[in-house]
Amino acid sequence: MKIVLMTTPFFFVEESQILTALFDEGLELLHLRKPDTEPVFSERLLSLIPESYHRRIVTHDHFYLKNEYGLRGVHLNGRNLELPDGFKGTISCSCYTVEETEARRRKMDYVFLQSTDFNVPESREASWGLLEDAAHQMSEKELKKVYVSGGITLDDLPRLRSLGFGGAVVYGDIWNRFNIYSQQDYRELILHFRKLLK
Predict the structure, then answer these.
(1) CA 98/CA 24 separation, integer angstroms
(2) Residue 88 and residue 76: Cα distance in Å, rounded?
(3) How confident is the model at residue 189 (pLDDT cuts 50, 70, 90)?
(4) pLDDT digits 0-9 by tens, 102-132
(5) CATH number of the structural domain spanning residue 125
(6) Residue-wise DSSP of 39-75
(7) Which of 31, 59, 151, 188 is the most exposed place for a label (fewest CB within 10 A)?
(8) Domain count, the chain
């Protein structure tokens, strides 16, 4: 099962160092999501990450970055619904229901099945119900193209793996371990990422 990391929606000083360290640790796939930001800031961030890791990055915005920086692909979303003309590369998108997931995964290399209720403790079981429905309705091969997103933590990974999903998208479980406003080191974040990979 793949671990996919979603960036914060904002930029911060240590970001390139942290992302490079995570790639060094074995991060396979980073989704660069910076809505409502100027492309020059994404360009700067990418220029600070070693070129050898660019093939592990998918962008949610400013799709020209894919070719300019040799990125892996693009992620379609409400802000960016259309592929650039003649696009070649990995294509993904976010889905919010099992039906949408089944319909869209055929045209995508993989899809995120977004379960926003995972972030609300009282709704976690309902979210698991959605995921179990998806697991029962899709074949093992189909599930490998579905990555679960929305408040996923280390504790969720064994259950997701047992259901047969191809990956999990982490966000808060990583970024909540680092305070961008204090000059702390990011050792705790790296140590937790190692646990996620195991």
Answers:
(1) 35
(2) 14
(3) very high
(4) 899 889 999 999 876 666 767 777 788 889 9
(5) 3.20.20.70
(6) HHHHHHHHHHS-GGGGGGEEESS-TTHHHHTT-SEEE
(7) 188
(8) 1
